[in-house]
Amino acid sequence: MSSWALGSICCFDSPSSQRHDVAHRRQPITTTAAIAGVKRDVAELTMGRLSLRRATPSDLPFIMETERLPGFDKMVGRWTADQHKAAYSKPSYAYLLGTEIGGEAFGFAIIRDLDDPHGNVCLKRIAIASPGRGYGTPFLGMVLDWVFREATAYRVWLDVLADNDRARHVYMRGGFTEEGLLRRAYKLPDESRLMSILRPEWLKQRLTRSTE
Question: Quick one: average pLDDT of 27-54?
Answer without folding.
Answer: 57
